Amino acid sequence: MSEVGKRETFTIPIGPQHPALKEPEHFLISVDGEIVTDVVVRLGYAHRGIEKAVESRTWVQSLYMLERICGICSHIHAMAFCLGVEQLAGVEIPPRAQAIRVIVAEIERIHSHLLWLGVSAHEAGFDTLFMYSWRDREKIMDLLEGLSGNRVNYSVNVLGGVKYDIDGAQETAIREAISFLEERTRHYLEVVTKDALFLQRTRGIGVMTRSQAEVLGTVGPTARASNVYRDIRVEAPYAVYDKYPARIILDNRGDLEARFFVRITELFESYRLIMEILETLPDGDLSTRIPRRINAGETVSRVEAPRGELFYFIKSNGSDIPERIRARTPTICNMMSVVKLLVGHQLADVPMMLAGIDPCFSCNDRMVVLNRGRNKERLLTWEALRQYGIDYYKRRSA
Amino acid sequence: MGSTTIKDVLLSLIALLIFPGGLFLLFVGLAYEWIDRKLLARMQNRVGPRWFQPLADTIKLLAKEEVVPDAVDASLFIGLPIVALAGVLTAAIYMPFPGLPPVGSFPGDLIVTVFLLSLVTICLGLAGANTLDRFSLVGATRALTQLFAYEAPFLLALLGPAFVAGSWEISEIIGYTDGRWLLITQPFGFIVAVIGLIGKLEIPPLDAPEAETEIVAGALTEYSGRGLALFRLGKGVALVLGLTLIAAFYLGGVATPLLFLAKTLVLLLVIVGIHALFTRLRIDQTVGLWWRYGTLLVLVQWLGIIIWQGVMI
Q1: Domain assignment present for B230
Q2: Residue B36 lies in domain
Q3: Residue B203 domain-assigned?
Q4: Predicted complex: ipTM over 0.90
Q5: How does the average pLDDT of chain A come out, rounded?
Q6: Which residues 6+ apart lie within 8 Å of B94 measured at CB?
Q7: Rounded mean pLDDT of B74-83?
Q8: Which of B47, B282, B285 to mutate to test the interface with A (most CBs of A within 10 A)?
Q9: Could you tell me which chain A residue has the CA closest to the CA of B285?
Q10: Interface of B with A in 34-93 (CB under 8 A)
């Protein structure tokens, strides 16, 4: 409610600090009793200025910077960046490196989806499922640690290839972990599609029709749960996805149950892809040389992150420092669907519906300059900006 | 004459303040809270707290500064937790706790006991409504809504055994139920009583009033320090007393401390199992559950009892 309403509204602030949110963002929920009447979102609490920061770092340094946009899908960010830069440089990376990139990307998808399953179950108050799915996720974390030495920012990519090879022992470990997880995932699929009490919280909640999903510009599993045929792995195959096609999992119900179904069924798809690629892992080098200065030009690199389409715009001026890099993360595309769909639902459904798009807030916080015809831009020094902040909050509290 | 009076008074005081009421009850409440948490943790594949964790939590909370927020009635804010704890401790007087005959008793004390157990929820609701915090207000509304939903079926479920025993006095009812497993003859009443206790104590899946992912800590959001510690103690005691009441009425009585321990722990296991297995219900679903199924089940139970008694006569 931007204006002072005629009728007083009762607002509940979800965030910036709230147990339902794992990262700081602000959702101001107006309620009438338990029914949500209006939602105001304020993003930007986790803005870190990474896009600006890479403009003063070399291409190689930027890779490590961009990897840290997201803690959950760090690999896919680096991969999108590498694919784009390699395209600009006109470098073809060895097939083994491409395959390993995709294997790690799919392992990352598994880890992200299992994490989401746990978080969503926790939002619904189903902590047992939360604990179990996170226990099983540890297998994947162990795999990533075994492959790269790190659990979170595994940093598998380098410009021109990958850093880590998959040897025989690691291959066995991956196969074992995946056959274990396949069985567990079957169980979870049964839980979320058959448990009557859990279905009470998911079936028919937050229904997004196909046309709504298209108008609101949703991506990834959120869109696929509304029967939108959208997956970059299939629509514009990159790396080795043309040789190992992924199958798109669709559901036409569009509610929370459909999102559970789509994400968990996608896990089987990832298991299958990893197994297939491991079967026919090509031999060869892990990386190829890439020039320090990248040819001038601009390119767009799109990949399918666990949450949906990840879009990179990369512009080079021919030096060893990028001119401009823009990353559009899937959460920002899906955010509007939450705001739109929350109205009319119960307060108790808010955390579940928020979690339903698998939000990653620190990924989506960008600075945008809105120039409403005033054509007035100001550059502030750090000192001036600090003083501005102090004055702003003084004015507000007065 | 004078010495016996003093002795009586002393014995009463000991019964009220040290054993079996008062201090002993508080510690049993903490012990049961630990068992609850540990069992749940093991079911959820976690390690769970060490045995003294609830006690340590309580001591820490009691030692902390209590922050009284602006714009609340300070006396209510401080007084309500005390009233809540006092209420449940008073309820213990009429209970066969721990497997001993009740300390006090009078005709109709069952109703008083059930009311005293509800006092925790009422105080919780008032405490939430007393503050201006928005989470507290929603939590308080939900707590009181839930109270109105489960209270009638819960009371009716406890009156089933009272009806067949022909008395509303707890000591007489437990005399009747001793050795008689009313669980077999009144299964619906038992189910409603157990789920009623879950709702009363706001244990998941009926924990909508304090759903942390929606409204932080519900009515207790503004409480820290002593007030929170007293509410937690009150809930622990209410858990023990509720288990005692159901075990005594439905599970063939708690004539000795050993039987008390065994039967209440089995009941606790059932409750923890329900906690681990189910998803939290929304408040509208909770209310629907009680008025659509809970009340109906109890009424069917009552009809059965009345018809059965008619046949017997």
Answers
A1: yes
A2: 31-305
A3: yes
A4: no
A5: 87
A6: B102, B103, B104, B105, B109, B110, B112, B113, B170, B171
A7: 89
A8: B282
A9: A200
A10: 43-46
